[in-house]
Amino acid sequence: MSLRSITTVGGASSAVTTARPFIVNELKLDSKAELDQLARSLLAPAASIPPKYFYDALGSTLYNAIVLTDEYYPTRTEAAIFDKFRAEIADTIGSGKQFVDLGSGDSVKAEKWFPSLAPSRYVAVDISESAVEQALARLAGSISTNGKPELCGLITDFSRVLNVKHVIRDEPTVFFYPGSSIGNFMPDEAAWFLKQIHAHRRTDGCGLLIGVDTKKDHARLDAAYDDALGVTAAFNLNTLRHVNELLKTNFNVSQWRHRGFYNAALGRIEMHVEATCDLSLQIRGETRRFKSGERIHTENSYKYSPIEFEALLRTAGFDHVQAWHDDACDFCVYYAY
Q: What's the pLDDT tens digit per position in 161-212?
């Protein structure tokens, strides 16, 4: 099934009322500016690479492998919570609402909610147009005709600003943000992002269903981000290969190693790549020297106790919060409204 792609300029498209799947593309990235910023991040005294550069084709494949490793508990624990409490969560949310899937990817997690929530509309929101196109085409062909939600997609970088007003209606809406992706924001950024979601509540009956990883034993957190098979290491180091393609830099991946560990003082997992020897990197005609042991910061993943995250939700304006978790409280799912 072919999907229509619509680029909006300064206002909502009238196409949002169509029954056919469609995609609104509001991604306005300046490629040169993005690469300029990447170069500046590498040349900075505390070098870093934004985590979005993990996800070239190989990086995405490696991430899908990470979630299958024995050590990486978040994905399977969240799925188990959803399966165990699905009926109770669905009863709390209510049926027949718009379902806005933030960071939708292949839409598989969202699709599992369709039978119990019976959404009137499904909005896949992602930075990857190809992922949304493939997901909506699959859903359009696989969902039974009876009760099929209207399908649409929004291509945007919501880590910068969340604006879904062109693709949602003034009706009860559930926002879905699983996978503890909220942990990739700094705490003040997470609060800002949650406030934006709250601001999109146009009617009664709107809420947020979100999955959040919790603080726990230091060793378990370290292992989850530095698995014995080295899949996470390959995922992290692949970023250097990707940067070589984008900036024509001269990273030699064999001169770097993966570092993933829990920083208890800051309540976050940190991912870095660390130089194994003194080396020089050429970045757009400039030389950046790295000492052996010097690191490039690639990602944070903040962990929240239930008390901390409920407070964050209330700060964002959500007055009512209900939570579900596994027996060990390794992971929590919240519905806030």
A: 999 988 899 999 999 999 999 999 999 999 999 999 999 988 899 999 999 9
Other C-beta atoms lying within 10 Å of the C-beta of residue 61: 12
How far apart, in whole angstroms, are the C-alpha atoms of residue 22 and residue 20? 6
Q: Is 15 exposed, middle or buried (0-12, 13-18, 19+ CB in 10 A)?
A: middle
CA gap 118, 148 in Å, rounded: 8
d(CA 220, CA 316) in angstroms, rounded, equals: 30
| pTM of the predicted protein model | 0.90
**Contact yes or no for 164/123 (Cβ under 8 A):** yes
Q: What are the φ/ψ torsions at residue 60 (nearest 5 degrees)?
A: -65, -40
Kindly give the pairing relationship between strand 22-25 and strand 150-155. Answer: parallel
CA distance 302 to 190: 10
Q: Which of 173, 192, 209 is nearest to 316 (CA)?
A: 192
Rounded Cα distance between 235 and 260, Å, is 11
- CA–CA separation, 129 and 125 (whole Å): 9
**Of 125, 153, 157, 135, which Cα lies nearest the Cα of 31?**
157
pLDDT at position 27 is 87
- Cα–Cα–Cα angle for 27, 33, 34, rounded to 5 degrees: 65
Residues of the chain scoring pLDDT < 70: 1-20, 143-147
- From residue 244, alpha-carbon distances to 196, 212, 251, 335 in Å are 35, 33, 6, 42
Q: Is 303 within 8 Å of 269 (Cβ atoms)?
A: yes
Q: 299: how many CB neighbours lie within 10 A of its CB?
A: 22
- Which residues, at least 6 apart from 308, have a Cβ–Cβ distance to it below 8 Å? none
